[in-house]
Known about the structure:
Elements: E1 7-8, H1 9-17, H2 24-31, E2 43-45, E3 48-51, H3 53-68, H4 82-93
Antiparallel strand pairs: 1-3, 2-3
Helix pairs in contact: 1-3
Amino acid sequence: MPTDPLLPLLVAIERATGHRPHPSTPMRWCLKPNKHGNVLESWMIGGRRMTSVEAVRRYIDANTRQSSHQQSVRPAPIKLSSSHHNAMQALSQEGL
């Protein structure tokens, strides 16, 4: 259990970011790992899911760090068939 005060999800996120997301967004952050494998730390207390402002900041920092270190993915070059290559050369010779 954290030493930070626990708050309802939307309140903690709003205090950490200044924005209030749609209610389904923080529940998804808590229950399902995102593409980086991160989950927002939370606790069920009295039937309500709670978290802390610091847990929200850690979650956002981890996502930011991981997304900014990803290299841009370039698609693999397409290997054209020889007939396609010949057709392109013929068109080029015709000025098209």
